[in-house]
Amino acid sequence: MSSKRPLLAAVLVLAAAAVFAAGQATPDQKTPQPAEPCFVRWTVYPTASLSRYDYNNDLGLYEVRIYVELRRGSQEGEALKDAVVTSLGEKLEFHDDHFEKWVVFEKCVRPAEVDLEIAVKGRPVLRERQPLPDWLVLTEPRPAVIETGKDLGVHWEFDRFEAPVDVLAYDFKTGKELLRRTNEPGTSIVIPAADLPAGTIVRLYVIQSWLYKRYLDGRAYARGSELNVIPWSQVFFRTRGPAQGGRP
């Protein structure tokens, strides 16, 4: 019996070593690491266009314009251009260093929220759904022929919360800026007659001065990932020219 004890002890030692080794990762069997986080900058523009072109064309065009910047690891990382990005049932297209899509809606079915899905090979799918805080809509002037020589009232409205806006106007033919008002309170201003040239097309728009911002949380997001929502509205109108003999 005594001669067998050293052999038994050796067998037990080898068995224990085998159990210990089985619990250790080999160089070819490394513990899986979590996927590197993505930096996401998601910018949404609820957009109300009274007219897209000259006047009395494409009236009441409501869009949600969506832009997504997607980078590896941080906002300084490589753009993940091979990702599949979808929002509001549409696949976003890659342009330069970001994804974008303009999704059109009827006025009566404007969405109250926006969703985002990001699929990158080798990573879990990212999904977000966030409310749209507001829509901003110009109500005056309408897309039409406007008489010059008198002041022009500009009016707008919010769906939910009033906020300061920037009001800008350009001569669409020359690109010259005609008006710039920033952080305007209330829901109206007056453009003096002297600032409104005759015989041209004017692009007028109002955009909320301060954006709505929300940071995106979770281990899948790199630091600083964010959602920005910026409502705005535009209109194009023609001013009557003195040499037109009373015709637009």
Structural description of this entry:
The chain has 248 residues and is mainly β. It has one domain: Immunoglobulin-like (Sandwich). Strands 1, 2, 5, 6, 10, 12, 13, 15, 16, 17 and 18 form an 11-stranded mixed beta sheet that branches. It has a 4-stranded antiparallel beta sheet with strand order 4-3-7-8, with no helix packed on it. The longest helix is centred in the N-terminal third of the chain and has 18 residues. The C terminus is likely disordered.
What topology does this entry show?
Elements: H1 5-22, E1 38-49, E2 61-72, E3 84-87, E4 90-91, E5 93-95, E6 98-105, E7 113-119, E8 126-131, E9 136-140, E10 145-146, E11 152-158, E12 165-171, E13 177-184, E14 188-191, E15 201-208, E16 212-215, E17 226-229, E18 232-239
Parallel strand pairs: 1-17, 1-18, 10-18
Antiparallel strand pairs: 1-2, 2-6, 3-4, 3-7, 5-6, 7-8, 9-11, 11-14, 12-13, 12-15, 15-18, 16-17
